[in-house]
Amino acid sequence: RNMSSAGPEGRKNMRECDGLIDSLVYYIQGAIADHEPNDKATENCVCILHNLSYQLELELPDSYAQSIYMQRRNMSTSDKTPGCFGTRSRKVKEKQQDTPLPEEKSNPRGVESLWHSTLIRIYLSLIAKSTRNYTQEASLGALQNLTAGTGPMPFAVAQTVVRKANGLPNIRNMLHVSNPTVKKTAVSLLRNLSRNASLQSDIAREVLPDLVSILPDSVPESDTVYETTASICYTLYNLTQSSSHNARLLLNTGGLPKIITISMNDSNKFSKASRAASLLLYSLWSHTDLHSAYKK
Question: Where does the record place Basic and acidic residues bias (predicted)?
């Protein structure tokens, strides 16, 4: 577990270690089957997998990159894509979102397991069944890592979490736990998921009222809560930017007064959350059909 946080070279060596990832996954599956999700060794295994999934899209060997991103060869050369992962242009991002992954292998081995739907379901199961904060945080964090990039893999993982594995109810429950770090990681995962336009209506329906409910009514007292507040505002921004329906849902659940309060606090410590809230207000105002409702 300590070695898995030793940096890019350490992660690379551990991902390439024959049988290591398979053994970790096998152990966790056994613990879940034996109804022992709070086992300390399970926590260690999940924390290792969490660390090994960090920056996975950027650090994958070229052989996997070619396999996973092979459909991108069909893109026009005018996009000037500088390799498998380096591009950041909006046009390419839009095309990436429409690019499906190849069919999953039924028996993934090694590094292939890290983004496979089997492990995604394991993480969601641990989020639901474990009461250990480190296990919950590592499971959420692994999903956050896997959904963090801009290529087809993060978007495919997001589709699996939301649609195939019905993971939103489990993630929503983590918004209401007392541990601030678990809550922060759950919000960060939702922020990543909310970038996927095809999932925004599902996410808004399932968790938008919960996100509004955990926004602070006044200036929060800890750095973790500052960051969580900023992340909530950016998630709400993603969900409402293109949807008047979702903006109205935010309004009807009492979000506006909270967001205005957050936006008006200009202390240096709180500025990140204040900027996020201001951006959200600006976006909400762009829905001209809601102006009279806002004024009321």
Answer: 94-107
